[in-house]
Amino acid sequence: MIAATETHLAELARKLEAASQAQDVAQLQQLGQDYQTTEAKLEELLTQWTELETA
Q1: 31 belongs to a structural domain
Q2: Count: domains in the chain
Q3: Could you list the pLDDT tens digit for every one of the 55 residues in the chain?
């Protein structure tokens, strides 16, 4: 799950770069929101993993 989320973040970063170069503001906004949501999910997964490791 963590690896898949990291892969998704990398994909979103590539899409953000492409949208930035294309100056597609609407897509930048949507991708930016998706990136933030996915990043928060990754942080939550990493926290859970750390808690399980130390339990």
Answers
A1: no
A2: 1
A3: 999 999 999 999 999 999 999 999 999 999 999 999 999 999 999 999 999 999 8
Asked if the structure places residue 30 within a domain, the reply is no
Q: Is residue 33 part of a domain?
A: no
Distance in Å from the first CA to the final CA of the chain: 20
Helical residues (DSSP H) of the chain, grouped into ranges? 2-22, 25-54
In terms of Cα–Cα distance, which of 7, 19, 16, 18 is closest to 45? 7
Contact 6, 42 (CB under 8 A): yes
> Can you read off the two tokens belonging to residue 54?
């130390």
* Per-residue tokens: 19: 């949208």
